[in-house]
Each structure stands twice: as structure tokens, then as C-alpha cells.
Amino acid sequence: xxxxxxxxxxxxxxxxxxxxxxxxxxxxxxxxxxxxxxxxxxxxxxxxxxxxxxxxxxxxxxxxxxxxxxxxxxxxxxxxxxxxxxxxxxxxxxxxxxxxxxxxxxxxxxxxxxxxxxxxxxxxxxxxxxxxxxxxxxxxxxxxxxxxxxxxxxxxxxxxxxxxxxxxxxxxxxxxxxxxxxxxxxxxxxxxxxxxxxxxxxxxxxxxxxxxxxxxxxxxxxxxxxxxxxxxxxxxxxxxxxxxxxxxxxxxxxxxxxxxxxxxxxxxxxxxxxxxxxxxxxxxxxxxxxxxxxxxxxxxxxxxxxxxxxxxxxxxxxxxxxxxxxxxxxxxxxxxxxxxxxxxxxxxxxxxxxxxxxxxxxxxxxxxxxxxxxxxxxxxxxxxxxxxxxxxxxxxx
Length: 397
Fold this sequence. Notes:
Elements: H1 12-37, E1 41-43, H2 48-53, E2 61-63, H3 67-88, E3 101-107, H4 109-121, E4 128-132, H5 148-159, E5 163-167, E6 176-178, E7 181-183, H6 188-207, E8 212-215, H7 223-242, E9 246-248, E10 264-266, E11 272-274, H8 285-303, H9 366-373
Helix pairs in contact: 4-8, 6-7
């Protein structure tokens, strides 16, 4: 009878060698498999002590964050840093005066953006308040939606503005009902009626002797819309200037050197920024502020000094006093004592022009007469610049 061969158990040294080989190869296989499968977790490297004394317990898993999550976290941190840095530069708006001048802004959605820009422009001026009286869907064509002449009269009575800012036309590229007949856009009858409506709106401000600014339309992403906007601007400019108003052209601020639409450009500080929205119509915050920048000079000019309370006003009580305690007499200063270049101290004084040598008058010096009025002072007789012609004396008989 043939007995089967007895299987011998492996020796301890052989088992130890196999375990060492497996322990060395295990991390390499894990890392190689992770790289091939782009795994998101790796296993902790196990030593021979772990294999002998900890048995087959699984090793701890170390989670590796996803690359996309890392990118999101970096972007979130960068955005937070930008927000924090921008908040530092924001100035607190001043409290408006009770008698501050009101600027009424009327028009469509472009006028709404202009009102936002003007609000930012005068937020630190205590003497100017911007009243936003716009309607985004309004225009001069659809009087059934909003009749601007009657609406303007109502808002003037309610707000008592010192200045009116108008911006319209972005919604007016549509047919118009004239005397019960629908006229096509840009037809002769359409143009005639549209000019009448522009003039009627301007007349409301002109009849009340209120200064007003009509802001022209900027370029748009649509070439046809830009062409129509340029035509509208010609309508507005002619009517506004005829009525004695101010027309502000902002086209160059939102177009390139060829007059075409640009989405990005320079802000009021000359820095490149995004000016227009992705729709090619709306404006960003920087675009709104830039649009208002074009109006600031005329706005302050029309409002006058009353809108700038920070300016000092000099009257007779603010004039300097002389030795007698009274304001000096007003007289033109025709001459000053000569100054010795070799003796600048002037009898013990440390000043180049001693106050004791200056006449106690408040008037114009020869320099002031020359620069301000363009007048020159006649030279004394006998001085080198005395060019006056004098008749020769007749010889005595």
C-alpha cells in the first residue's frame, strides 16, 4: 500500500523571509495601483513589527483631498482676501445736510445705472442728494406704459429738485402710434413725432427755469443698436442745445478708437476693468461710476457753490485787520519799497519782505493787474522802461 507523501510544514525562517519580502513589496504595489487608478486614498506603510505582532488588521487609511477641492479652497481664500482688502478702502458716506440740493434722475434702465453712478460720485458731498426716479421699461414711444412729461411734472412738484438729469432712448427702437396709426421705426412720421416728444419733455424743465442735463446713449454690443443710439443722440443734442440745456456725450468712454463697442476699458482712475455686462447692454459698477464721471463737472457747475458747503466764504467780517483793529482800505498796490540784495535782513528783520514795509491795503498788485486783467502799470518817468513820447520843450525866447 502506497501512502501519500506527508506534507511538511514550512519552517519559521522561510515564513519570516516571505513576510519580509511581502512587507517590502506591499507599499510599492499600493502606490503603483493608486497612480494607475488615480485613487483618492493611500495606505499607511506597514513595518515587519506590524505584520508579526498586529496580525492582519487593516492599516489606517489616509484620505487625500481631491485636486478640485484644493482649487476651490484656494479660490475661496483669494476671494475672501480681495473682499477684505477692498473693504478697507471704502469710505464712510457723510451725513447729508437738511438743505442739500436734490438731483432728480429720470429715464429707463440706462438712467437707473447712471443714478447709481451719481450716488457713488456724491456720497461724500453733504450738499448733494441724488433722487432716483427711473423706470427700466420706459421710453418716449410707449406712452401707455409711462407718460414721461406728466410723470416729470409730478416728481418736480414732490421733490423740488435743483437739477434734472435725463437719459432715455434705449427702449425706443419700436413702432410708435401716431394719431391712431402705427408708424414704423425710423420712418419720417416716426422721426417727426419722436422729436416733438423730446422737445415736450425738455420744455417742462425749461419752463420752470430748472437746469437740466441730457445724457447721451453709449455704444452697444449690437451694431444696429449702436447705430440707432448714435441717431438718437443727434436728436437729443439738437433739442437740448436749442433749449439752453446741457448735453453730455459719453460715447467715447465706452467705445474704442473706431467708435465701436468695448466690454472692458479704463475706469475713472485709468485702470483696466470690466465696464459692460455679458448682455452687451448693462453696466458694471465701474461702468456706472465712469458714466457718472462725465457728468460731475457740469453737475457741480450748474448747482453752484451752494452745493459745496465745505468751501469757505469770505466777507467783510473775515478780512484781516490792521493796527487799528479795522479791515484795511481797499486800494491797488502800485509800488513796494526796494529790497537790497546785499542786506536781506532789512534793518534787523529776518524776513525778506518785512511786514512793516508792506502797505496796509487790500488791493491788486502790478502782478495781479497783469495776470488777472491783462493791464500794465505805467512806468515812472525816466525809468528805462518808460517808452512814453513827450514833446520837447520849446526854447525860451
